[in-house]
Every structure is written in C-alpha cells, then in structure tokens.
Design goal:
It contains two helices and four strands. With about 110 residues, it is an alpha+beta fold. It has one domain (about 15-60, about 65-100). The protein has a four-stranded antiparallel β-sheet with strand order 2-3-1-4, with helices on one face.
Length: about 110
C-alpha cells in the first residue's frame, strides 16, 4: 500500500464560521476518516502567512493508504452529501480545493 496525503483547503461561508468549525471538526472529519483507506485526519487554522491576502484560512490533511487513489476518491465523492457524510451550508464548497498527493522525497530533518 502506498501512503498518500489528501489535502483540503477551505473557508466558511461569511458569518457562519462557528457552524463551519463545529460541523467540520465534530461531523465531517470523523465521517471522512471512516471512509475506506483513510487512516486519520487533522485540521489546521492559519496563524500567519507570507501572502498579503491568503486565500484560505483552514487546512485539513488526511493520511490515506491505498493502491488505487482514483477508487478511493470516487468512494469519498459517492458518500459526500449523503447519510454517511452529510454536508453543511456553512462551508464555501465552490471555493474549496482538494487534492491527493504522494511523497516524492523522504522526510528531511535537521
């Protein structure tokens, strides 16, 4: 099995940040991790940026172990918005970016 990182950059709909964070942390994150091949997930909030106006405030990173990332993503999409993975009107879906990444180097440490 190959280890991938599934990355999501997203923002809340204006005025719904509290609802967005509650839904994402309490509902969506566990729902995604229950999907086949997803091992774990974690959310991050932007603290500072070198960009003048960073486009995203929130980042989620999931570890995924699979030999078929396309199948894994199709399965994830098939659950989205259904009873296994209810959505929220608090997330700016149109502005979100997702991607599956595979390491191309070893981890570099000090």
């Amino acid at each position: 099995m190959t280890l991938y990182k599934f990355v999501v950059l997203s923002n809340p709909v204006p005025g719904k940040e509290e609802d967005y964070n509650r839904w994402y942390s309490d509902q969506h994150l566990p729902d995604v991790v229950r999907c086949p091949d997803f091992v774990n997930g974690q959310r991050f909030s932007l603290v500072d940026s070198l960009a003048n106006d960073p486009p995203y405030k929130y980042l989620s990173i999931f570890d995924v172990e699979t030999d078929d990332p396309g199948r894994t993503l199709r399965d994830l999409v098939s659950r989205a918005g259904g009873p296994e993975m209810p959505s929220s009107d608090a997330i700016d879906r149109a502005g979100a970016i997702t991607g599956m990444f595979v390491p191309i180097t070893d981890v570099v440490s000090k």
